[in-house]
Design goal:
It is a single chain. It is built from 16 helices and 29 strands. It is of the alpha+beta class and 612 residues long. Strands 22-29-23-24-25-26 form a 6-stranded antiparallel β-sheet. A 4-stranded antiparallel β-sheet has the order 1-2-3-8, with no helix packed on it. Strand 2 and strand 3 form a beta hairpin. About 15% of the residues have low confidence.
Length: 612
């Protein structure tokens, strides 16, 4: 069975929802609650300030809050639930007998404690005077089997149902950040349900009907206040959608649909995010303009462009089909975005020009530079919602921020913006606390990607920790369900610098290559500023050693540090296509940094970023 990485519970319909690492969803209904959540011992979650915060429990992947208000642990499978039950009995009740432990384990206000003790002693066969910590592994297994039976794990087996389903998700966004508290209406047949977006702009998941019928997505028309259909969810493949709004007036324009709706003769300026492999000639051909027109519109004299840069395009408005907006792997152009042979001191605009134009508000390849409102100014619905295309839309935001800050060190930077405060990780002052993770999460959030795992304990602090992209807590080894790991780097991947002991200590975005072994990361807290820096990619490296005999020999050793790679779950399908053309060119680090106002690195040992 595929690995399940996170789970939630829907008490109104008594369904446990599990998310698989490949993006599929498993729904469990019927049976009993312990079976639905793989919790044979009915183990509850300790709460702190109303939020589940188990101290030492391991192996769980979510929490189930029932209609009665009690919160239980959800495990990925029965085996994980049994292991935690055994650990719980040893940890909390090891010095107690069964008769002493059960009044604490199953208190009288919720159970018939005396009957529980009698049944457990009888079915397990454990002597009444035996302490749980003194039981052998085989005896402990008997206790676990008996508790599972008493708690009803095996009851109502005939009503159990497991269903693999397609699930789509909708995010409310103004194009640069999520919109909490937004409302949409989901219509299934004759039944309508109004749902709101949470603090991260996420609506509840939309489960595709088993009969392949459509789920219509509606929003309130700003003028008539009537619900207007803006999209339809259907089929056996789940997708992620961004529902865009401008000044609280809903629009469903995104990506390729926006491009294809352009009309001949339209000459509105557009903002275009440079993709890996682009050249000015290719962009000019795509949007029926000229290289000179693009250079003039962007006030530049040279032809060099690089991924994530934003260009103003003034053309006929009639575009050729762009293969990057299809489901096929994006084609790579032969021209390099910024070649390694580029001069160390490229001719770049003055500082004010370097920060213009600003990043586009919508994370797509192209967008009109002004509001897409109707002539009446009422912001009428223009198109269906669509999955956001393009590669790593957070990169244009990271690039633009690096250009705006123009090489400022953290002591100066924190007076202008504190990424800790912006994402709410509970910290302040960039100069006092490592901020690489805060910067990365800020860029993702601005691009409309959720970064906060609501309901998880210690979730705020996790936002400011580099290893938080990999796991919510080092001790519990619980994977962060918002991100999925890749085997190889791609353009825009969240690259986690990891020590040989497995601890992640720094994070940045994959941008290009510096030689065969090093990856260039764009990140915060690199030399106390936002900049490009090379990091070793390989977990192992080959070195030449001198043997006692005087002969030289090659030896494979573990690297002091190496990189792991992650992307948001909602970007995973695009990431799989990106792996065919990773978009990572060989580049000159100093030339890249000069563009964003960072001087070349001094020769000598490079200081490591502060660990977080």
């Amino acid at each position: 069975m595929p690995r399940l990485i996170s789970a939630t519970y829907h008490p109104n319909i008594e369904v446990a929802e599990f998310i698989c690492e490949d993006g599929r969803h498993l729904l469990r209904s019927g049976g009993t609650l312990p079976w639905r959540i793989n919790n044979p011992g009915d183990l509850t979650a300790r709460k702190v300030d109303g939020v589940p915060a188990p101290r030492k429990a391991k192996g769980y992947i979510g929490f189930a809050t029932t209609r009665s208000g009690r919160t239980f642990l959800i495990f990925p499978d029965e085996g994980a639930g049994r292991e935690e039950l055994k650990a719980n009995l040893k940890r909390l009740h090891g010095d107690r007998t069964i008769s002493e432990a059960i009044p604490v384990y199953a208190p009288k206000k919720e159970n018939d404690t005396e009957k529980y003790i009698r049944d457990l002693l009888k079915t397990s066969g454990i002597p009444a005077g035996r302490k749980i910590g003194e039981c052998s592994d085989a005896e402990l297994e008997k206790i676990v089997n008996s508790i599972a039976e008493i708690e009803g794990f095996h009851a109502n087996a005939g009503t159990r149902k497991e269903t693999w389903v397609a699930v789509s998700r909708i995010n409310a966004t103004d194009g640069s950040q999520p919109l909490p508290g937004a409302e949409i209406v989901l219509q299934r047949g004759d039944r309508e349900e109004t749902v709101k977006s949470d603090a991260a702009g996420r609506f509840p998941p939309v489960i595709h009907p088993a009969d392949n019928s459509a789920v219509h997505v509606k929003v309130a028309d700003p003028k008539s206040r009537k619900a207007v259909t803006v999209g339809t969810i259907q089929g056996d493949v789940g997708k992620d959608f961004n529902l865009l709004a401008k000044f609280k007036r809903w629009k469903g324009v995104a990506g390729s649909e926006k491009i294809n709706s352009s009309t001949h003769g339209q000459r509105k300026p557009m903002s275009y995010v440079v993709q890996p492999g682009d050249s000015l000639w290719k962009i000019a051909q795509l949007y029926r303009t000229s290289v000179e027109a693009i250079k003039e519109a962007n006030k530049r004299e040279h032809d060099r462009i690089y991924p994530g840069e934003v260009l103003l395009i003034v053309g006929s408005g009639k575009t050729k089909p762009d293969p990057r907006t299809s489901t096929a792997p994006p084609a790579m152009a032969t021209a390099k975005p910024l070649a390694a042979s580029a001069p160390a001191s490229p001719a770049v605009p003055s500082r004010p020009k370097a920060v213009s134009p600003p990043p586009p508000p919508v994370p797509t390849g192209i967008r009109s530079s002004d509001s897409e409102r109707s002539k009446e100014g009422e912001g009428k619905v223009l198109a269906l919602i669509n999955p956001v295309p393009g590669r790593a839309p957070w990169m244009s935001i990271a690039i633009a921020e690096a250009k705006i800050r123009y090489g400022k060190t953290e002591e100066v930077l924190e007076a202008e913006i504190d990424y800790h405060v912006e994402i709410g990780d509970g910290s302040k002052f960039l100069s006092q606390r490592a901020w690489c993770a805060a910067f990365a999460n800020w860029c993702l959030l601005k691009a409309g990607y959720p970064v906060d795992n609501m309901g998880f304990w210690d979730r705020r602090a996790t936002l400011g920790r580099a290893h938080g992209f990999y796991e919510m807590d080092e001790g519990r080894k619980m994977r962060n369900p918002l991100f999925v790991e890749l085997e190889k780097p791609i353009y825009g991947a969240i690259a986690l610098a990891t020590r040989r002991n497995g601890h992640g200590y720094h994070v940045g975005f994959a941008y290009g290559k510096a030689g065969e072994k090093n990856l260039i990361l764009l990140g915060g807290n690199q030399d106390d500023r936002i900049k490009f820096s090379p990091f070793n990619m390989d977990a192992e490296r080959v070195v030449e050693v001198m043997e006692k005999s005087g002969r030289r020999n090659k030896k494979t050793i573990k690297s002091k540090s190496y990189l792991k790679y992650f992307v948001p779950v909602s970007y995973y399908e695009q990431a799989k296509r990106d792996l065919a053309s990773p978009g990572l060119e060989s580049m000159d680090v100093d030339a890249l940094n000069k563009i964003i106002g960072v001087p070349p690195e001094k020769k000598g040992k490079k200081p490591e970023p502060r660990t977080n």
